[in-house]
C-alpha cells in the first residue's frame, strides 16, 4: 500500500449515508484495493449522522465488546478503549483473538486533539510479506495462543469481561467460543484461546497477518511496567501473555522485529472534526498515537466474521 489512502470529499452539504448508498460499489472496490477509505466534509462529528452512516457502510453492527464504552442509546456507536494519552496504543486487528471479528470498522472524529492522536493504520498484507519466511511459516503452522489471567488486580475482572457473576455461565460461554479455561485459588480464572495468525482474506484471496501478539506479549510493554508486573505477579500470573499455538514461547526479538515491521508500514492521517475513516478489519490494523488536549473518536463495528469460516493458509 502507498502512504496515501483514498479520500472522499463531500460535494457540498451532503448526507453521508445517502451518498454511500449511491456509491457503495466504488467504496467497496477501494476498500479491497487499499484497505481503508477516508471521508471529509460530511459532518460526521454528529452522533446521529455517524450512526446513520455506520448502519449503511458497516451493517449488522457489532455491540458485544465490553472493553469499549457505548456512546449511543442503541449501543451501535462506541468510544475506543480507555488508554493513557501519553502512550501509543499498538496496532491490532479488532478482536482477532476471539472466535468472531468485525469485518469493518468505522472511525469518526467528534473532537480532534490539540496534537497527535491519529489512528495509525497498517496494511496487513505488507506485514505478512515483510515477515521472514521462518517466522511466518511457524506462525502459519501454529497460530497464537492468547492467555488471560484474571484476578491479579490489573485490568478488567472476569465478571466484567463475561458480564456475569456465575462461574457456570463463564464456562458455558468459553466452551461455545473455543476458549480453554481453568479455575485456580478459588474463583480466579485463566483462559487460553488459540487463533490463526495468518488467514486468506475471504474477498480478495490474499494472505493477511491478523494476529495481535503485540497486545499480549510482555516484550511489548515498556521496561518499567514489565519489570513491575513480573516482580509483583510473576511471569505465570501476568494479566495477558501469548505463545505459539503449541504453548512454546515467542521470543522477545521476534516481537521487537514484528513491531518494527508495523512501524515501517504505518500511515497516520491526521484527524479533523467531522472526518471519518472506514477500514477493512482484516486488511488493515489500527492503533492510536499519543496526544494532548481533548479527543473524542466515535467507533462502529460491523459485518461480523468467524475464524471458523476463514482459510488459515
Defining traits:
313 residues, Double-stranded beta-helix, 2 domains, five-stranded mixed sheet, four-stranded antiparallel sheet, 9 helices
Give a brief description.
With 313 residues, the chain is an alpha+beta fold. The protein has helices at residues 16-22, 24-34, 47-57, 124-130, 133-142, 158-162, 167-176, 223-233, 252-265, and strands at residues 7-9, 36-40, 69-70, 78-79, 89-92, 100-111, 115-116, 121-123, 144-149, 180-184, 188-195, 198-200, 207-209, 240-244, 276-280, 284-288, 291-292, 296-306.
What does this structure look like?
This protein has 313 residues and is of the alpha+beta class. It has 2 domains: 7-84 and 102-114 and 272-283 and 291-302, no CATH class; 126-260, Double-stranded beta-helix, CATH 3.60.130.10. It is built from 9 helices and 18 strands. It has helices at 16-22, 24-34, 47-57, 124-130, 133-142, 158-162, 167-176, 223-233, 252-265, and strands spanning 7-9, 36-40, 69-70, 78-79, 89-92, 100-111, 115-116, 121-123, 144-149, 180-184, 188-195, 198-200, 207-209, 240-244, 276-280, 284-288, 291-292, 296-306. The strands form 6 sheets. It has a 5-stranded mixed beta sheet with strand order 1-2-15-6-18. A 4-stranded antiparallel beta sheet has the order 10-11-9-14. Strand 10 (180-184) and strand 11 form a beta hairpin. The longest helix is centred in the C-terminal third of the chain and has 14 residues, at 252-265. The radius of gyration is 19 Å and the shape is globular. The two termini are 21 Å apart. The mean pLDDT is 93.
Walk me through the topology:
Elements: E1 7-9, H1 16-22, H2 24-34, E2 36-40, H3 47-57, E3 69-70, E4 78-79, E5 89-92, E6 100-111, E7 115-116, E8 121-123, H4 124-130, H5 133-142, E9 144-149, H6 158-162, H7 167-176, E10 180-184, E11 188-195, E12 198-200, E13 207-209, H8 223-233, E14 240-244, H9 252-265, E15 276-280, E16 284-288, E17 291-292, E18 296-306
Parallel strand pairs: 1-2
Antiparallel strand pairs: 2-15, 3-4, 5-16, 6-15, 6-18, 7-17, 8-16, 9-11, 9-14, 10-11, 12-13
Helix pairs in contact: 1-3
Amino acid at each position: 500500500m502507498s502512504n496515501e489512502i483514498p479520500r472522499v470529499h463531500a460535494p457540498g452539504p451532503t448526507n453521508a449515508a445517502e451518498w454511500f448508498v449511491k456509491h457503495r460499489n466504488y467504496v467497496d472496490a477501494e476498500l479491497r484495493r487499499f484497505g481503508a477509505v477516508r471521508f471529509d466534509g460530511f459532518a460526521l462529528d454528529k452522533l446521529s449522522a455517524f450512526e446513520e452512516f455506520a448502519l449503511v457502510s458497516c451493517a449488522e453492527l457489532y455491540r458485544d465488546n465490553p472493553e469499549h464504552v457505548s456512546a449511543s442509546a442503541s449501543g451501535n456507536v462506541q468510544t475506543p478503549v480507555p488508554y493513557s494519552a501519553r502512550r501509543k496504543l499498538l496496532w491490532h486487528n479488532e478482536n482477532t483473538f476471539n472466535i468472531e471479528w468485525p469485518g469493518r470498522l468505522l472511525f469518526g472524529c467528534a473532537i480532534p486533539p490539540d496534537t497527535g492522536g491519529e489512528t495509525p493504520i497498517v496494511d496487513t498484507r505488507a506485514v505478512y510479506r515483510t515477515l521472514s519466511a521462518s517466522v511466518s511459516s511457524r506462525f502459519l503452522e501454529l497460530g497464537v495462543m492468547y492467555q488471560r489471567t484474571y484476578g491479579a488486580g490489573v485490568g478488567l475482572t472476569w465478571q466484567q469481561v463475561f458480564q456475569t457473576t456465575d462461574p457456570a455461565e463463564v464456562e458455558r460461554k468459553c466452551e461455545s467460543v473455543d476458549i480453554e479455561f481453568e479455575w485456580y485459588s478459588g474463583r480466579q480464572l485463566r483462559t487460553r484461546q488459540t487463533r490463526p495468525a495468518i488467514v486468506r482474506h475471504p474477498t480478495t484471496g490474499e494472505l493477511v497477518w491478523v494476529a495481535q501478539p503485540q497486545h499480549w506479549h510482555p516484550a511489548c510493554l515498556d521496561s518499567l511496567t514489565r519489570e513491575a508486573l513480573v516482580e509483583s505477579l510473576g511471569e505465570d500470573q501476568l494479566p495477558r501473555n501469548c505463545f505459539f499455538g503449541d504453548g512454546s514461547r515467542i521470543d522477545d526479538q521476534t516481537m521487537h522485529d514484528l513491531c518494527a515491521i508495523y512501524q515501517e508500514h504505518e500511515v497516520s492521517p491526521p484527524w479533523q472534526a467531522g472526518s471519518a475513516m472506514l477500514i477493512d478489519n482484516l486488511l488493515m490494523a489500527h492503533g492510536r498515537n499519543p496526544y494532548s488536549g481533548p479527543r473524542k473518536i466515535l467507533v462502529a463495528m460491523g459485518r461480523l466474521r468467524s475464524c471458523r469460516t476463514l482459510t488459515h493458509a
